[in-house]
Every structure is written in C-alpha cells, then in structure tokens.
C-alpha cells in the first residue's frame, strides 16, 4: 500500500492515524513520515490529494489554468528525491526559468513604482526583493516546505526548513504557473509576495 513519496488511493488519513498510534508514523501536512526504530526517516507518504491541499493553501488553482498537477509536482521534486527514485526530472530547470520570470516581474514592478529612481537604486531594490532570504519567507508563508518531495538524506537533515531548498522550490512554482497560466497569472502570484517583501527581509527594500 505504501511507496516512497506518494500513497495509493486506498490509503486514508485514518490509516495514517492508526499507524501513528503504533508510534511509527509522524503526521505532517498532507501526509505522514514513516520512522525507523532509530528514529530515522525510512519513507514518507502523502494522501492522494497532497497537491490539492497545497493548491488550497496557496490559492494556486487561481493561477494554474489547466489544473494539471504534473507541472506542480515537478516544481516540488527536489533532485535528491528524483535521484533516489530514478525519476527523469527534478525542479532545477523550472527553478532556472522561475528565477528569470521572478526577476522580470519584480523589475517591471519597481520600474513602474519608482519612476524617478536611477538604475543603480532599482537594481539594489530588486536584489533585496528576490534574494534567498526573501524567497524563503515567501515559501514559508504558504508552508511550501511541507510539500516538497525530498530524498531521505535531505529529510533527515532538515531539508524542509533549508532556505536554499525552499527558495529554489518557490522559483520553480513560479515557472510552473508561468508555463501553465501565462505571464499575467505569474505576475499576479508573484506580486502577492513582492508587495509585502519587507516582512520577509526584515528590512525595508522600498
């Protein structure tokens, strides 16, 4: 019934809770983590609606027009998980694209917002807005770390809270939205966070 990263349709929250009572499973957002006798993570499973839960939490259905979960799943597939499970893809290419989409949207927003500021100041503002610290904060806002597919090694070393992993996954999600819904959808999603970036940098970028 169980296999790494996902669960079969007949696996329910009740099943996870029953296992939890036996002391071998820790419930988490959208699924459960299976622990070995030494407390190490030996597997982790998600309910069938794992990505639906993320959609609901981050309102991604508003931006993912085709409702195809494959792009979102790829955006949340870390290379460690792909390597362990011999998958042909991970989120690194989407991260590359998402970085550029994020940079363009942020640059356009700042260009329109600050009509009299010179190029040098705008560059600094953009850098502060899209830095790893900011993206980590954005990802934490929607609890993105709970939904990233990670290899066992990353899971055991706190990968769900690692700023580099969360910021990269956030950029990959931006790319998925861009590819699925277009630039307008990506812009609407990104500006939700960029406009409040001061909350996540701890300093005023604007």
How would you sum up this structure, described in words?
Helices cover 55% and strands 9% of the residues. With 206 residues, the protein is mainly alpha-helical. Strand 3 and strand 4 form a beta hairpin. Helix 5 (92-113) packs across helix 6 (119-129) and helix 5 (92-113) packs across helix 10 (183-194). The chain is built from eleven helices and five strands; from the N terminus they run ββαβββαααααααααα. It is globular and about 50 Å long.
Sequence-ordered SSE layout with sheet pairings:
Elements lengths: L1 E2 L2 E2 L5 H9 L3 E4 L2 E5 L5 E6 L3 H9 L10 H7 L3 H6 L7 H22 L5 H11 L2 H10 L10 H5 L6 H19 L1 H12 L3 H4 L5
Antiparallel strand pairs: 1-2, 3-4, 4-5
Give the number of DSSP strands.
5
Average pLDDT metric? 77
Count the DSSP helices.
11
Alpha-carbon Rg, integer: 18 Å
- What strand order characterises the main sheet? 3-4-5
Residues in helices, as a percent range: 55-70%
Taken as a percent bin, the fraction of beta residues is 5-15%
Globally, the shape reads globular
Task: Tell me the structural class.
Answer: mainly alpha
**SSE run:** EEHEEEHHHHHHHHHH
